[in-house]
Amino acid sequence: MNKTIFPKQSIAHPQWFIIDAQEQTLGRISTKIAQTLLGKNNILYTPGYCAQQRVIVVNAKMVKVTGKKKLHKLYCRHTGRPGGFHVKTFEEITHLSPFYTIEQSVKRMLPKNPYGRKLFTKLEIYKDSHHPHTHKKLEKLTP
Q: Transmembrane residues, as ranges (predicted)?
């Protein structure tokens, strides 16, 4: 009979990855981030098991999209009140909050349950190249 071996949480040290979003395509880096958060690049990958991997994204304001998505990609939300439907383009959203587009893109690629919400907390996004995680041992993640 085959047995699945789970490493203990105390033994598994968190791995830190850093990805530079400068001049990278939004979809490409989002899929790489989601796969890393899920632990699919780890040899001990098991669905539903929380991998001890954290991802830091720098230069989020310089992420790009292809084609005419800058003007045609829409982000919709509703307040729940009558007349509370708001629509903004990619360009407007990146001007107001540069990391919102990456957050939403990665969040929609993760599972829609408590496990996905826990994984999402392991993502750190910064709009420029400065971040407070310089003392960590960071591995470069390339899309």
A: none
